[in-house]
Design goal:
Blueprint lengths: L6 E7 L5 E2 L1 E2 L8 E6 L8 E5 L2 H11 L8 H4 L5 H12 L19 E3 L8 E3 L5 E4 L2 H7 L2 E6 L2
Parallel strand pairs: 3-5
Antiparallel strand pairs: 1-2, 1-9, 4-5, 4-8, 6-7
Length: 153
């Protein structure tokens, strides 16, 4: 489903009457409606309007709560807080190995992602069941979603 330029997505309710949070970060008037969930049994957790999947994911990740500082060692794949602190000090001091190669900071572990507009730690935890898809009219009917769209000013 795509919105026309002169309309805006106001609200979405599931078949139980629960309001699904709508993220209008980009205020696109002519994008697709995207659904996001990280729980296969929890249904749609967020809805956003975006021109493509990358923008939809970016908007949703910005809404997710960042992890606590106490979880950073896990996010970077370390086994303990102590290992994380040692690596952090080595990185900050630009420590080099015997061949003169600088210490590279590790990538985020699976299940974590950076927020595009970071808050707090700037890292969010994503469940392994994460899914994002463009909402179709058939799915909207099948899932019993009630979408309120109105003309924009």
């Amino acid at each position: 489903m795509n919105l026309k330029r002169d309309t805006e997505l106001v609200s979405v309710h599931d078949n139980y009457g629960r309001e699904i949070p709508v993220i209008n970060r980009y205020h696109w008037r002519d994008g697709a409606i995207w659904c996001w969930s990280d729980n296969p049994y929890g249904g749609v957790m967020y809805i956003t309007v975006a021109r493509n999947i990358e923008e939809a994911i970016e908007a949703i990740y910005d809404e997710l709560p960042p992890i606590d500082k106490s979880e950073l060692y896990e996010a970077y794949g370390f086994d303990s807080q102590e290992e994380y602190e040692i690596a952090n000090k080595a990185y900050a001091a630009n420590v080099r190995d015997g061949e003169g190669k600088a210490f590279d900071w590790p990538e985020l572990a699976e299940g974590y992602a950076y927020q595009p507009n970071a808050t707090g730690t700037g890292i969010v935890s994503i469940d392994y069941c994460e899914a994002i898809w463009a909402l179709s009219a058939d799915e909207c009917k099948r899932e019993g979603l009630k979408i309120r769209i109105q003309r924009s000013e």
